[in-house]
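Hi there,

I know you've been waiting on this one. I reran it after we fixed the sequence typo, so this is the corrected version. Both the input and the resulting structure follow.
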Amino acid sequence: GGAGAGGGPEAQMAMASKPCARLCVIRAEGDGVDPVLVVQVEKGSWCKLNHGTAVGPPQYLFGAPEGLSRLMLTHRRILGEGGPPLPSPSLKAVFVSGLEPEHAGGLVGLFLRLKADGHEKVHLFGPRGITDPMVFSCENIARWGHPHVLVTEHNLGDSCRGTLAYSDDLLSVLVSTADPSERWDGLDDPESGPPRPDLSNFARVGDTPVCSSRGRQDPGPSGPILAHCLRLKRTGMVAVVVDCGTEAEAIRLRGGGLWAALAAMGEGKVRLVLHRARWEVVETAGYRELVRALPGARHVSMRSRGGAEFGFTGSLGTLLRLGEVDGTAFGPPAASAVKEGSAPEGAVEALGGRFSAFALHDDGTCELEPGGEGCTKAEEVPGPSTAGGRDGRAERAERAERPTVAEVGGNRGAAAMLRDSILGRGPAPKRPRVAGPIEGLPSVTFLGTGCAEPSKYRGSTGILVEWAHGSVLLDCGEGAWGQMVRLFGEEGARKRASRLACVWVSHKHADHLLGLASLLRNRPVEAPRVLLVGPHVAKRYLRSLGAALGTRGGGYLFKHHTHLARDARTFSHFFRGTGLESLTSVPVVHCKDAWACVLRHRDGWKVSFSGDTRPCDEFVVASRGSDLLIHEATFESKYSAHAHKKRHCTISEALRVSDEVGAGLTVLTHFSQRYPRVPDELHEAVTGSPGGLEARRVCVAFDGMKVEGNRLGEYTEMARRVSEALREAEAEGNKE
């Protein structure tokens, strides 16, 4: 049914005060996720499923960066408790400006999330070249159960008048690449002239099982889309999303026909201009000229001024709470520098907080909705801790004596954010100063500890193994780079990425390799070439991205698991000076071309990682005597049939492997989304009688957890305190 039909005087008054559209900006730059825009049209026809059920007001998404699916899962009710979730079944279209991970790296995860939520159909619009990598990913990497996806690629044909990309009964979306052939006459009525195909029609086109596509005329990628122009048909109001990555692109957009056409539309038509560019680009002279050339609109940055907004509040809250158990194993995230001072003339507005919502009204007004800027919902953050029944005043006094993040190497703005937005109480726990890996012993940082689709509490798999003279990344699921940014800061993440000797990928599934593009793209220019060891699909996936990968530094050399085993020269070249004697890939029982690995160092330590697998005798033999065994434990034992079907291990099976291997420490990871913290079976083993995990030298991994080689004997006792602390939090009702 249509929104706002019928009703008495009170209902009509409520409808009159209701905005015609809401534009919501969501930020999580502290997690390495670029900002996105959700447009929700409040007045007009509601979306319906195929069987006719109305599902809510239409939504439109601008930007699909890596990590988007998890961000939306964390903030599903960001548009209000009475409003639709994000993403809702009424999401009609997704618009991306480029093929790079910061623009389109989250598409596969988004489509998987849409299917899980019962979505039926969606229209994807992007630059030329977007179809091939998406189709490859869906067919070869994701376990694809998809909504129907109609893909339209932007092409410059013989006539580019209006550059209309999308149109339905509520709004039109036009795009600009600032190409000289674009014509912007008639911007007030972009659909005038010859009839165009209805791009909001979701009827199947062609027979391809993954998606349908339109508009493909020429091979190869086109230039980036520099601006999306949204026109609300109800009022004629216009909002613009600018996505210029460099000053040169801003100058080009300023000199193109779109900006002149917008300026000529008249007072009050262009209400809001949202800028996605980084602050170092926005503050250049060329970009300021772009802003000054459209003085009648409100210019707002989609980015926070300091770049330290953390969106994954579920896992961050867990990390900070566990930091009170052990501040070294669970240290707080790195703090980005906050820029202070007022914005110079000609710059755009800076808004803080994880999200900001703008309301566009029928009378042409545009206002920032109260509660959007910097708002934190109660269900997103843990509340005060009363662990052990301690007196609250004594605990507050103790916290008052703790140093803030600023005092241990962060800054005042980040400390306030962690204190007020995440825990809502005293200063962040102190992270003891640690000199780093001790000579000869590795430290292991868990970037992600979940499986399949990420959850609010656990991201996709990534394990960073570092020692005095080298480092290896084991698996690189979606969001691995963002987790490095969160834990080490952007500069620290780039340094670690540049020091990597090897990225090792266990198998072809999305939660183990979709993060490769972001990692490779964000390596510093001066970084040497990195060795990439993985299944054949990993090489084909990176090739499908083509120029969009934009690999920096020395790039990468790909070797299949079996090829590296026969290529001592390549191994010697990439691991020269690291002390690593061998990196052995072991075939395991999961999907085709799935592997585990064993690292051996000349100083005598040995680290083994199972990847995804059923219990595997060959891996048990290869990993015997490991100082550290990292093993998947996807399901509790009561779900053994499911584990057999999915070819994963239950907790009891992983514990039996641990017993057979006899490792100095076994860390269990890769937990199903049904276990946000510690599965009941593990909690009972951790806190139970002799013969539990402490006797077995086993602990549970969490996102952001650091295991240091010189402390292996401490983690099993720590596991008991961790599990008890999380159960106490749950008992207090502090659930995310």
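Quick highlight: The mean pLDDT is 79.

Best,
R. S.
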